[in-house]
Automatic annotation (TrEMBL):
SUPFAM superfamilies: Type II 3-dehydroquinate dehydratase. Its EC number is 4.2.1.10. GO terms for molecular function: 3-dehydroquinate dehydratase activity. This is 3-dehydroquinate dehydratase. GO terms for biological process: quinate catabolic process. Keywords: Lyase. PROSITE patterns: DEHYDROQUINASE_II (PS01029). It comes from freshwater metagenome. HAMAP family: AroQ. The keyword Disulfide bond does not apply. The keyword Lyase applies. It is an enzyme of class 4 (lyase).
Length: 144
């Protein structure tokens, strides 16, 4: 069974209560449950994590790189300014493993500061704007 790391950045544990008009009314546990159900259907072994800490996210990426595990990453606000995460993502994809950047909202349709992703150039691909389906589309892609 193929393993995939689903990594979530800062504030995403606040789903459900945080700006529900943008991120929806379902919470992080709902997201986890939906992804685990899809992972099972696609025969993917998912490790789903969330952290507000750049260092923890980087350690998880490094571990996945060493283990050659594909990643679905919602870098949240780090998308827009974390060159440290970008470097870890670059090393991951340069090693031959996949990393799909996902966003629940479409950052390009929001404030100016969200229009720039420092991560995208280091990602295999980017999926944004489809709610929780952004993650599901990424998992489907990694399952083929
Ligand atoms: C987000 C978009 C980011 O701009 C924001 O900082 C987030 C969530 C999204 O999933 O739409 O925290 O990554």
């Amino acid at each position: 069974m193929k393993s995939v790391l689903v990594l979530n950045g800062p504030n995403l544990q606040r789903l459900g209560s945080r700006e529900p008009d943008i991120y929806g009314s379902l919470n992080f546990q709902d997201l986890t449950n939906q992804l685990l159900a899809l992972g099972k259907a696609l025969s993917l072994d998912l490790n789903i994590m969330q952290s507000d800490s750049e260092a923890e996210l980087m350690a998880a990426i490094h571990e996945a790189t060493d283990a050659k595990v594909d990643i679905v990453l919602n870098p949240a606000a780090f998308t827009h300014y974390s060159y440290a995460l970008a470097d870890a993502c670059k090393a991951h994809t340069a090693s031959g493993a996949n990393l799909i950047e996902v966003h629940i909202s479409n950052p390009h349709a929001r404030e100016q500061f969200r229009h720039k992703s420092v991560i995208s150039a280091s990602a295999t691909g980017v999926i944004a704007g489809f709610g929780f389906d952004s993650y599901k589309l990424a998992l489907r892609q990694l399952s083929v």
